[in-house]
């Protein structure tokens, strides 16, 4: 039950209203469950505000997150809230640059092209709420340069909120982000020999 | 990116299929953000499976979680997935026992009556996925007896998944639960003087 009261009043020259409406960069990291799930849960709030929501799913798996995908798409189609665009690397980014000489781009190259699209959308203010799902892995692996990401996020125009999920978020990103939550695993059914099940893991 | 492979095969006499479909009790605790949000994100998966979803919101605030509430209700109304029933203590439980002599029941009494309704629904298998939002507080405060909750959950019939959120989940509940995630705060905008904002906190 958040109290809604800041513990510090910063000396940043902003009014409370300006500060309240400041666009946020949020990071969900750690080895526990709930990083992506909480990000998609936040997207429900954005949808309820009527904001355009853009999801960029930086994973290959087709099965995981299909529940969230179907739900958020269905919400977008109700017309009662914001629009939802779901970009899934597993099905190939629709905007991807294919080079017929070299065949299918590598996972790394697809991921990088996904980031390039995010940059274009941020510049164009395409969405008001972004979920960059599993994006922290790309930074951790060095596929996308963290310093560049921080620079792009810092300079993004308008009122665009961005949530980044994934284990091993680089310290440079954590330092820059406005809100960081570490999801710690206390106990997981897989530790007790239980496999993932529908409705729970996807 | 979960690998989907258990690390242990238990000697419990169950087949993998039986074990896979075992109903789960999940707890999201800790002082960080994302406990409830991740629970509502999970509800998207349950909805996508066509399961009846029951939310019990054990808080008084009307503003918080209105985004998730509107979104999940809208999903339930699409007819494309499961049904959604949202029970909110802030607006009074609809089933509450009123005693005209004593006036409005106390917060504690309302909370306890909410738990009584959860017990009835579990016994009747009303839902397949339950969100008991902020319920851990009630246990921590002693308003509801943790030993009783564990007993009811242990003996619940059928295939009913239950997610309990809130800080300070009692150890007895953590010990019993199948999945426990601790959301740790690394950084929060309120620490930097930022108040909650629409689309983010509600």
TrEMBL record, chains A, B:
UniProt cross-references to InterPro entries, sorted A to Z: CblAdoTrfase_CobA, P-loop_NTPase
Keywords: Transferase
Residue ranges crossing the lipid bilayer per the database entry: none
Gene Ontology molecular-function annotations: corrinoid adenosyltransferase activity
Entry EC number(s): 2.5.1.17
Keyword ATP-binding: no
A Pfam family recorded for this sequence: CobA_CobO_BtuR
Matching NCBIfam families: cobA, PRK05986.1
Entry-linked PANTHER family: CORRINOID ADENOSYLTRANSFERASE
Name of the protein in question: Cob(I)yrinic acid a,c-diamide adenosyltransferase
Species assigned in the record: Streptomyces coeruleoprunus
Gene (name only): cobO
